[in-house]
Specification:
- Keywords: Membrane, Transmembrane, Transmembrane helix.
- This is Stage II sporulation protein M.
- It comes from Vescimonas coprocola.
- By secondary structure, the chain is mainly alpha-helical.
- The protein has one domain.
- Helix content is 82%, strand content 0%.
- It contains 8 helices and no strands.
- α1 crosses α7, α2 packs across α3 and α5 packs antiparallel against α6.
- 28% of the residues are buried.
Length: 206
């Protein structure tokens, strides 16, 4: 228990470092781009429908969702874990801040899919019913991962530019601690809710 409490204290300390700025900027950018995706979907409905169908097909090909719409909780959890790992790992590439691209793609798609519902005469309440229950857990996990990737890229870039010593080791421990103690539990909760709770809520609106 002492060890676990020590890890929690160190993680809370990490949140108080410069990482908090990356987290704040990521959250603001993510939220700001969602309305742009929604507006784009209304302006280009055919493209939005095509992207929505491609996304659904991709979920089926990954084994996450079958033809009846049933979600495989383990496949979903595994896919989300891989996605968040890549979101962080992109930060190892200096200078170009690839995690920022992931921020744009994920937030724009979130808004775009809301527009697809509107374009097809489906209430946004149905969309929120399908997103909010698991999104309460999944979106914070995604934002934590993306902000970690941004922060990692910044530190790697500083290391390349100035050859800073003794930075990367502690940073890797902090990011691993964040991933295991916060991101993984959030993704587990999100997967369970999306597989078992969300379908029941959607039945009330569709």
């Amino acid at each position: 228990m002492d060890w676990l409490e020590q890890q929690r204290t160190r993680l809370h300390g990490f949140y108080r470092t410069e990482y908090r700025y990356s987290l704040r900027i990521t959250a603001i950018a993510f939220g700001a781009l969602i309305p742009l995706g929604f507006a784009g979907s209304l302006l280009l409905p055919d493209l939005a429908d095509q992207l929505f169908l491609q996304f659904a097909q991709q979920m089926a090909e990954l084994g996450i969702m079958d033809t009846t719409g049933r979600v495989d909780v383990l496949a979903l959890f595994g896919n989300n874990v891989r996605a968040t790992v890549f979101s962080i790992a992109y930060g190892f590439i200096p200078f170009i801040y690839l995690p920022a691209l992931s921020i744009g793609i994920n937030s724009l798609l979130l808004g775009l899919f809301a527009g697809v519902y509107v374009n097809n005469g489906i209430s946004l309440l149905a969309y929120f019913a399908g997103i909010v229950p698991h999104g309460i857990f999944e979106l914070p996990a995604l934002i934590l991962a993306l902000s970690s990737g941004i922060y990692l890229c910044r530190k790697v870039t500083d290391y390349v530019r100035h050859n800073e010593k003794g930075v990367m080791g502690p940073l890797m421990k902090d990011l691993l601690r964040l991933f295991v103690m916060h991101i993984i539990p959030l993704l587990m909760a999100a997967a369970v809710i999306e597989a078992y709770v969300t379908p029941q809520l959607l039945k009330l609106f569709l």
